[in-house]
Write a structure and sequence with these properties.
six-stranded mixed beta sheet; Immunoglobulin-like
Length: about 270
């Protein structure tokens, strides 16, 4: 698969950059938040959800939660606004011993009659803690690195459904995002630009589907590329398309010519 080889190269480079970054971070302060994506509804039992925070390193972990409304445009640019009043969160803050876990309960208390899905980030923010006298950390640590992890929470009207269709699929050269710590932009990538339109009242997570691309290569010969959900998630994350909105995704699928490209979805 063309996309698989490109993804492997990009994943290796990204993992190397992340590994180098983590070498600079004290290991005593880290946490895990799961799940990272939560889907809720405005009424009934689905108006309540749970997120677990886990302290995965030996140091103490103090945290607080904040909520932000997320609005995303066609090109993936995100606008955030504080929205703590839309959810009842318990507990809103806490402290975990080494290896400790805390389940955070979310309850939607916003408008029960929202017309379309709304997206939020629940941010779990690590707070600074004082080191205990005489510990190794108190003697050697100069800086505390504070983590801020976010779970995507999408709230939908009960019974609402997505209605997603491709509106533009074409060969394109695009600028991939720079890797962490890079000083120069990466070279342009030959790939496929896909614009999806969601006319439904519910959001869509399009990385849950397989994408099938059919067209012709630069010599006019038939070309088909199947992109699995696992490959998609490495490139587009969840593939979130807002209700009654559009998203454009750039896929590192080289080889297509300038002719029309057909996109279909499969479970």
């Amino acid at each position: 698969m063309a996309i698989l080889s490109v993804l492997k190269r990009q994943s290796k480079a990204l993992l190397a950059a992340i590994a180098a970054l983590f070498l600079l971070v004290p290991a005593a302060y880290a946490m895990r938040v799961s799940p990272m994506v939560v889907e809720m509804e405005t009424r009934g039992t689905s108006a309540v959800a749970r997120i677990e925070v886990q302290n995965i390193n030996p140091g103490k972990l103090a945290f607080q939660t904040r909520v932000y409304r997320m609005e995303i445009d066609k090109d993936g640019n995100i606008t955030e606004t504080p929205a703590d009043d839309k959810f009842l969160i318990f507990p809103p803050q806490g402290a975990l011993p080494p290896g400790g876990r805390q389940v955070i309960r979310l309850q939607w208390v916003g408008d029960p009659e929202i017309p379309t899905s709304q997206a939020y980030y629940v941010s779990v923010e690590q707070l600074p803690v004082a080191f205990e006298p005489g510990t190794e950390d108190s003697a050697s640590a100069q800086v505390q690195v504070l983590y801020n992890m976010r779970a995507l929470v999408v709230v939908a009207p009960p019974g609402a459904k997505p209605d997603v269709k491709p509106t533009d699929v074409r060969q394109a050269e695009y600028q991939p995002p720079a890797l962490p710590g890079a000083t120069e932009k990466p070279p342009l990538q030959d790939g496929v630009a896909v614009t999806l339109r969601n006319d439904g009242r519910r959001h869509a997570m399009m990385a849950n589907f397989g994408w099938h691309l059919e067209g012709t290569d630069r010599d006019g010969k038939f070309l088909r590329v199947d992109v699995s959900p696992e490959e998609l998630s490495r490139v587009v994350g969840t593939g979130y398309v807002p209700a009654q909105g559009e998203r454009t995704f750039n896929l590192p699928v080289p080889g297509f010519g300038p002719g029309p490209i057909k996109l279909t979805f499969a479970k």
